[in-house]
Amino acid sequence: MSLTHDDQALAASYVLDALDEAERRAFEAHLATCPACSDEVRSLSRVVDGLAFAVPQQTPRPELRSRVLAVLADGPRSDQLAGRERAPRLRVREWLPLAAAVVLAIGLGLYALQLQRRVSTLEARVGDAERQVQTAQEATLEARRAADQAQTAMAVLAAPDMVRIDLSGQPSAPQATARALWSRNRGMVFTATNLPLAPAGRAYQVWVVTADAPVSAGLLTTDSSGRAAVFFSTPPDIAPPLAIAVTLEPAGGVTAPTGERYLVGRPL
Ligand SMILES: [Zn+2]
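Above are the sequence and the zinc ion SMILES. Below is the predicted complex in C-alpha cell form.
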C-alpha cells in the first residue's frame, strides 16, 4: 500500500497509534520520503507527549481511530464550526458560577465596607463618650478635692486649739504676705500672696520652726499671680511652733532649710 503526500491526515492517527499494522507500515514508508508528513508527526508527537503528562494514559479505543479519521477527513471548516458551536455552551457553564461569585464578592465587599464605616463611626462615638466620662471624672475629682480642702480648712478654723500666725515678706520679697492657721490636731491652712514666681528648678518650702528644729510642712505652689492656698497635715506630736517660715529650696524640697527666707512669722 503506497501513500501520497495528501494522506497527511493519517499523521494524527499514526501518532495516536490508531492505524492497523498494514496502514502503519505504509505510512512509515511514506514518512521516510515526505518531509511535510515527518514535520507533522514530529509536532503532533510533542502534543501527545504533553497530553501524556496531563491526563492518565490510555490505550486508544477501537472507535478512536474512526472518529479521528472522520474529524480529519471533514477538514478545517467543520472543525471551526464545531468549535464555534461548542464554545457558547462552555462559556455559559464556566462563566455563570464565576459571574455569581463576582457578584457575591462585590456584594460582600460593599457590605464589609458598610460595616467598616459603621464600626469607625461607633468607635469615634465611644471615643467621644470616653473622653466626656474622663472629663466628668476629672471635674468630680477636682470638686471633691476642693470640697475636702474647704472641709479641712473649716475644721482647722473651728479647732479649739487653732493658732493664727501672720508672716511678713523678707528682704527678698518685701511685698509678700502669708497667714498660717495651725491646729495640732487638725493641721495647717496656709495662704500666701505676692510671692515672686519660683525660678525653674526651685520651689517654696514651708517650715514649722520648733525649739528642736525646723520641721517641713510641705511645698508651696503659687499661681501666676503669686497666690497660694494649701492645707498641710502636720505631725500631731510636733513641738509648739516658735515660728513659721518659707524658704526657696531645690525643687522637690529638702529635709532642713538651706535657701533664702521669703516669709517669716511668729505666733502672737
Ligand atoms: Zn506526506
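The beta strands are 163-169, 177-183, 187-193, 202-209, 214-220, 228-232, 243-250, 261-265.
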